[in-house]
Every structure is written in structure tokens, then in C-alpha cells.
Design brief:
CATH topology: Rossmann fold
Structural class: alpha/beta
Low-confidence stretches: none
Number of strands: 5
Distance between the termini: 9 Å
Number of domains: 1
Order of helices and strands: EHEHHHEHEHHHEH
CATH superfamily: P-loop containing nucleotide triphosphate hydrolases
Strand order of the largest sheet: 2-3-1-4-5
Strand content: 5-15%
Oligomer: single chain
Length: 190
């Protein structure tokens, strides 16, 4: 089973490269945002619980997010593996994901870190906001998202290094070169 965590700051290219990884390796793509929206839309028990937190302006608790991911994993029909996009975001979530996978006799194969300098992230996200109309892609919101990323999510790099799963990828440059580096990193962990 090939389980990949794609990791990087907002605007680092996670979505773009996830699509390529899914195509090459035949993996399922689990985006926590997409999963949450789907659970809420179907009105599942977990979706209703998640909606109650959202309605009260609260973050989804880690335990609930892990339960939602577990349900998603258990309902997958193609089990070649999964790329996790947007999860984990904290060390506690990484520990929970490890336990979740270990219960199924699996583990994270590799954590792919797409590293892009903050100036480039700002440029990419502002451009994306202009092209797509995404309200959260404005300079003030981007700065806040990068602060949260640096404070809460960036420490995962060391956690995955200690677990032997971390793969550094220079996220600047030509898309095909970046993808080639990702493929080499994944293949080295298989």
C-alpha cells in the first residue's frame, strides 16, 4: 500500500502535483476539505457533527477529522494507496494518522515536502485569487495563513524526518522537473 502525505505551504503546488501523483501511481486522493464538504452534503452523522462545529465558528477537532478519514479510507474500493492532501496539519494529527494506518497494517510511505520561498507563495496565491476569484487569496489573508502554517504545520517536517519518511522537494521551477523529483523520492521509499 502506497500512502503519501503531500506537504507544503499554501500555494506550493500540492494540488497540481497531487493530480500527477494520483495519475502515475493510481492512488486515491483524499483532500480533507473535499471530504468534509462531502460528509456535510450527504448529511452523514459525522457530517452533521462537523457542521455543528463549523456553524459555531470552531475548528473540527482532530478526533472527529480522524474518524471522518477512517470512514473515507474504509469505503475506498481501489486500495493501491492514498495521497493525503491537507492532513495532517499538526504533530498530533500526524500521530493520529499513523495510528489509523497502523490499525490497518499500513503506514505513511513518504511525506513529500514542496518547498517554495514565501515571496513566490505570495505571488502565486495573489495571481490565483485574481484568476479564480477565491476570496481567501488576498495579501492580508495569505499572510495570516502563512503564519499559521509556519507555527503549526512546519514542525511536521522534523516529525517526519525522525520517522524516516520526509522527502524534500524544491518546489520552484518547471512542473515536469518538480514531478520527476517527486517520483524519484517516492520510488526511493517503496
Amino acid at each position: 500500500m502506497l500512502n503519501i502525505v503531500i506537504f507544503g505551504a499554501p500555494g506550493s503546488g500540492k494540488g497540481t502535483q497531487s493530480e500527477r501523483i494520483v495519475e502515475k501511481y493510481g492512488l486515491n486522493h483524499i483532500s480533507t476539505g473535499d471530504v468534509l464538504r462531502a460528509e456535510i452534503k450527504t448529511g452523514s452523522k459525522l457530517g452533521k457533527l462537523a457542521q455543528s462545529f463549523i456553524d459555531n465558528g470552531q475548528l473540527i477537532p482532530d478526533d472527529l477529522m480522524v474518524d471522518i478519514l477512517a470512514a473515507k479510507l474504509d469505503n475506498l474500493t481501489n486500495r493501491k494507496g492514498v495521497i493525503f492532501d491537507g492532513f495532517p496539519r499538526t504533530i498530533k494529527q500526524a500521530e493520529s494518522l499513523k495510528k489509523l494506518l497502523n490499525k490497518r497494517g499500513e503506514d505513511v510511505t513518504a511525506m513529500i515536502e514542496l518547498d517554495v520561498p514565501e515571496e513566490e507563495l505570495m505571488t502565486r496565491l495573489i495571481k490565483r485569487g485574481e484568476e479564480s476569484g477565491r476570496a481567501d487569496d488576498n495579501e492580508e489573508t495569505i499572510k495570516k495563513r502563512l503564519i499559521v502554517y509556519n507555527e503549526q504545520t512546519a514542525p511536521l517536517k522534523d516529525w517526519y524526518k525522525n520517522d524516516g519518511k520526509h522527502c524534500y522537494i524544491n518546489g520552484l521551477g518547471e512542473l515536469d522537473r518538480i514531478f520527476s523529483d517527486i517520483v524519484a523520492a517516492i520510488d526511493s521509499k517503496m
